């Protein structure tokens, strides 16, 4: 088994270790971090550069949009803003069931939440 492990490349070892740590029920963030640190250590990459790599990865502002988009969708769903937007567009359009299509890009809700909110808007024949 040890010979098989030593014949694998660092990338393959990292992926195997990641899934092994997930199987041990370690959180995904820790499994990713530990497997990446192991891969860096196994190829001889200086671990002192890890902090610099993390800082440069965080500095990409376009990646910050993803968690803020999720946060906005969660807040809009939990505070009832999404339902108010749907009611607004129903009044604006005249009660058509397509009003949810107009509010979906603005609400930033997940697909499951949007689908759950759409069903009451549809006529019974379309459900």
Describe the structure.
Helix 2 runs antiparallel to helix 3 (28-42) and helix 6 (81-93) packs antiparallel against helix 7. The mean pLDDT is 75. With 127 residues, the chain is mainly alpha-helical. Helices cover 73% and strands 0% of the residues. The chain is built from eight helices and no strands.
**For the report, how would you describe the main beta sheet?**
none
Tell me the radius of gyration: 23 Å
Query: What fraction of residues sit in β-strands?
Result: under 5%
Number of E-type strands: 0
How would you sum up the global shape? Answer: elongated
Number of helices: 8
Termini Cα gap: 55 Å
Work out the oligomeric state of the chains in this entry.
single chain
Structural class by SSE content = mainly alpha
- Report the uncertain regions: none
Instruction: Please estimate the helix content.
Output: over 70%
Overall pLDDT metric:
75
Helix-strand topology string: HHHHHHHH
What is shown here, in short?
The protein has eight helices and no strands. With 127 residues, it is an all-alpha fold. The radius of gyration is 23 Å and the shape is elongated.
């Amino acid at each position: 088994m040890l010979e098989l492990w030593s014949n694998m490349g660092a990338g393959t070892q990292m992926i195997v270790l990641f899934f092994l740590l997930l199987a041990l029920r370690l959180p995904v963030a820790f499994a990713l971090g530990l497997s990446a640190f192991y891969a860096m250590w196994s190829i001889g990459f200086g671990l002192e550069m890890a902090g610099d790599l993390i800082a440069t990865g965080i500095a990409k502002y376009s990646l910050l949009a993803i968690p803020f988009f999720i946060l906005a969708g969660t807040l809009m769903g939990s505070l009832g803003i999404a339902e108010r937007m749907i009611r607004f567009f129903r009044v604006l359009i005249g009660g058509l069931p397509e009003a949810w299509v107009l509010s979906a890009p603005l609400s930033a809700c997940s697909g499951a939440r949007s689908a759950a909110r759409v069903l009451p808007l549809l006529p019974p024949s379309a459900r």
